[in-house]
Amino acid sequence: MLTGGCLCGRIRYRISGAPIGSTVCHCVDCRRASGAPFVGWVSVPRNAFQLVAGATKTHMSSPGVERAFCADCGTPLTYRHAAFAGEIDVATGTLDRPDDAPPDNHTWTSQKLAWVQLADGLPQYPRALPEP
Ligand SMILES: [Zn+2]
Ligand SMILES: [Zn+2]
């Protein structure tokens, strides 16, 4: 069981079961939406993610892409893509124990900032994860 929430604490969530995967995304949209150079995401089955306190506000950042955040403190919390309706991505940095969900790879490295040097040996994908 993974748990987490936003900075102000009004929103809390829990994740039942094991994540599908974990990535660090270097895309422009994640950068802009978070204000951070790159963003960690833990992918979980949609029905494994449950809000237990508060309610998120959502923003459609591109067609079919919904980003949810705390309207009170601004913390980005989740990402959903219509093409992957059965999954939801949860911002790794909002977990209570982010070390419990380390990344498997880096995605969208074609948009990575030049001064970010990756040295963890994980696979790097220039765009989204290849289809399984
Ligand atoms: Zn908040
Ligand atoms: Zn991204």
Mean pLDDT: 96
Task: Tell me the strand order in the biggest sheet.
Answer: 6-7-8-9-4-3-10
Strand content: 35-45%
- Uncertain ranges: none
CATH top level class name: Mainly Beta
H/E topology pattern:
EEEHEEEEEEE
Helix content: under 10%
Give Rg in angstroms: 14 Å
Would you write up a description of this structure?
The chain has 132 residues and is mainly beta. The chain has one domain: Metal Binding Protein, Guanine Nucleotide Exchange Factor, Chain A (Beta Complex). It has 1 helix and 10 strands. It has one helix spanning 28-34, and strands at residues 2-5, 12-15, 21-25, 39-45, 49-53, 57-62, 65-69, 76-81, 87-91, 105-107. The strands form 2 sheets. Strands 6-7-8-9-4-3-10 form a 7-stranded mixed beta sheet, covered by helices on one side. A 3-stranded antiparallel beta sheet has the order 1-2-5, with no helix packed on it. The longest helix is centred in the first third of the chain and has 7 residues, at 28-34. One zinc ion (ZN) binds next to loops. InterPro entries: CENP-V/GFA (IPR006913), Mss4-like_sf (IPR011057).
